UniProtKB/TrEMBL annotation:
Transmembrane portions of the chain: none
Taxonomic lineage of the native organism: Bacteria, Pseudomonadati, Pseudomonadota, Alphaproteobacteria, Maricaulales
Record keyword Metal-binding present: no
Protein name: Glycerophosphodiester phosphodiesterase family protein
Keywords noted in UniProt: Signal
GO MF: glycerophosphodiester phosphodiesterase activity
Domain of life: Bacteria
Family annotation (SUPFAM superfamilies): PLC-like phosphodiesterases (SSF51695)
Length: 337
């Protein structure tokens, strides 16, 4: 599937996939040259063959992702979060080629999972082992990054692609001027290292750290209070703990969990303190939509005040939301595009 300039579905040209495949060889070469501490001047050409976003994601001067989300909410617009970057056939999870394919068709926020190798390089990968999503084997934290350079990503159907595992530096380099990314920090990776990577890449305006406990959120804020945080908030106690710790609410977005039904009371609580709410349609609601073919529940969730809907069927949700809002117009207005 592809999108026209107005966000409607059009047929995907087969050569688009081949462009992305070729770009995978560039990515492998760039990753091999230096264990992920990518110099933008060295990696910039790596993305030349990839499609550009339909609408570039650039926060207005001095703003971060939560500011953009508040703007969208004020326009009664919700934003889809493409889980693991927007997986489709031929486009595996957590691949830069997948991110580019997603945003070429319409604006979304990208959820990216990150792990750390044995030699301290942060990479984009969901599992702590390689077998499910790559051609490699073994524990990620037991391998040096150099051991992963020849590993290739595998899509959901088991098809091997030519796409290499990107480093965090690769992701942030590509995303600059193109994408808003939420970096989902996996177990064992110190959040301080993620914050340092964001700051080093000058990515504060377009990257946020995803954590699930108040303690982790506090550590992110202490590492650099400018960095945006997506943290799980499902009750008043958690909200109070975060605010009492001195975390600036304007730097927060609230993950309200994965549920089989909307949770409007939680969203109302967050709206009262001006913190954008995100909700997971993953698994339960997504599966119901797949079975029934009725995607109206995504509109119901947005009507309840949610700004970000995380989903595995991102275009189904995107198209459903398009029936209640001008997604492209709202996104352009909130990014100054």
């Amino acid at each position: 599937m592809a999108r026209s300039s107005n966000g409607k579905s059009v047929s995907m040209k087969p050569e688009a996939f081949m462009i992305a495949v070729c770009a995978g060889f560039w990515l492998a070469a760039c990753s091999a040259t230096g264990a992920g501490a990518a110099d933008p001047s060295a990696t910039g050409n790596a993305w030349a063959g990839l499609p550009e976003p339909l609408v570039p994601a650039v926060a207005p001067e001095g703003q971060v992702i939560p500011d953009v989300l508040r703007c969208l909410r004020d326009q009664d617009a919700a934003f889809v979060s493409a889980h693991r970057g927007g997986v489709e056939p031929g486009y595996p999870e957590n691949a830069i080629e997948t991110f580019a394919n997603t945003l070429a068709q319409g604006p979304m926020i990208l959820e990216v999972d990150i792990q750390r190798t044995a030699d301290g390089i942060i990479i984009a990968l969901h599992d702590d082992t390689l077998e499910r999503t790559t051609t490699g084997e073994g524990q990620v934290d037991a391998m040096a990054f150099a051991d992963l350079v020849e590993v290739r990503l595998v899509d959901e159907a088991g098809q091997v692609t030519d796409f290499a595992i990107p480093t965090l530096a690769d992701v942030l380099d590509w995303a600059r001027g193109r994408a808003f990314v939420q970096l989902d920090v996996k177990t064992g990776l110190p959040v301080e290292e993620v914050v340092a990577g964001i700051v080093e890449a000058n990515a504060i305006s377009y990257a946020a750290v995803v954590v699930y406990t108040a303690e982790e959120a506090i550590r992110v804020a202490r590492a650099d209070p400018r960095v945006a945080i997506s943290v799980e908030i499902q009750d008043q106690e958690r909200l109070d703990a975060l605010l009492d710790a001195g975390i600036a609410p304007e730097r927060l977005m609230a993950w309200t969990g994965v549920h089989a039904a909307p949770v409007p009371d939680t969203w109302d609580m967050l709206h009262g303190v001006d913190i954008p709410a995100a909700f997971g349609a993953l698994w339960y609601i997504d599966n119901e939509v797949r079975e029934s073919g009725d995607a109206s529940i995504y509109r119901d969730i947005a009507d309840g005040g949610v700004v970000v809907i995380a989903t595995d069927i991102h275009w189904t949700a995107y198209d459903a939301l398009a029936e209640r809002q001008d997604t492209l117009g709202a996104f352009r207005r909130c990014t100054g595009e």
